Amino acid sequence: MCSRCVGLVVVAMVVYPGGPLLDPSVTGYSFVQNFVSDLAMTVTHGSQSNHLGAGLFVAGFALSALSLMACATAFVGLHSSSPRARHFARAAGFRAYIGEGIT
After folding, report:
1. Number of folded domains in the chain?
2. Half-sphere exposure for 93 (CA within 13 Å, toward CB)
């Protein structure tokens, strides 16, 4: 599942048409000059359309969020067998849901 998330973000990097903020005339995505969040922009710094790349980027991060939520749910289920551990597991699961929601 993680490889699909990373794959979608990599494809978004490949199809990104614009350049970095400091030099919008450059074409393509530069890993060292662009921010990762630039991939989510529907219009690049050079005023080019990036709807496809933004869609791929958002899909990759949404898939990542769903995967982390499923992992947190499984963690709570696995560690809720004893009454003492149940409270800690639920607190950790709740924190994971909140942390994923904030990001």
Report:
1. 1
2. 18
